[in-house]
Amino acid sequence: MDAEATDDVDKVGVESDCYVIAVKDDALEDVIRVLCPRIDQSAVCGQKKLFLHTAGSVSMDIFKGKAQRYGVFYPMQTFSKGRMVDFREIPIFVEAADPQSLGKTEMLAKSISNHVIRFSSEQRRHLHLAAVFACNFANHCFTLADDILQEQGLDVSVMLPLVRETVEKLKEDSPLNNQTGPAARNDQQVMAAQEALLSSRPMAQDVYRLMSKSIRQHLTNAGTARP
Known about the structure:
Blueprint: E1 18-21, H1 25-41, E2 50-53, E3 69-75, E4 91-96, H2 99-110, E5 115-118, H3 121-151, H4 160-169, H5 182-185, H6 188-197, H7 202-221
Parallel strand pairs: 1-2, 2-3, 4-5
Antiparallel strand pairs: 3-4
């Protein structure tokens, strides 16, 4: 697959069939407004190009009035500079404004991933929200754990066996059914003692309290809460 990357919108050539716009959400509208009309106006014989964005929470409609053929190409993964990922394992969620564009978007996605799923903008908004909880918020919890461990002279890597087992369980059962810990056991003495340990970290204490309350509420709603 021939592809060229650039971070300068003025250097984007007009010869390509498809343009994937991968920028931060706040910059997406400005890039589309500048890029799409320029590319389409340069198209030979009126052949409009396909434009795709990669944002999880941005509707496909952001292209309306600025491009004729457009869609979304959303790889659900966390990306960091200098770290390679296996795109074959990454689910890519796609949608497009017309059947022809959707077919081309799917073909592009399937050329690099074994998991291509059609998903609407509204569905993708909720998917991205779930990803924030499962990835971004979970990683922040690792940060809070790291803060606590560093004070005791330990590296956060000591948590890796625990974290791996927690994730592995997702392959076998729902996270609700896999819930463990003092909140799941309704161990009030332990929770009170741990809250006290966080007295010098009021924000982390609030997170602990709210997370424990949420665990209890979910288990209660499912009818599996322990007395």
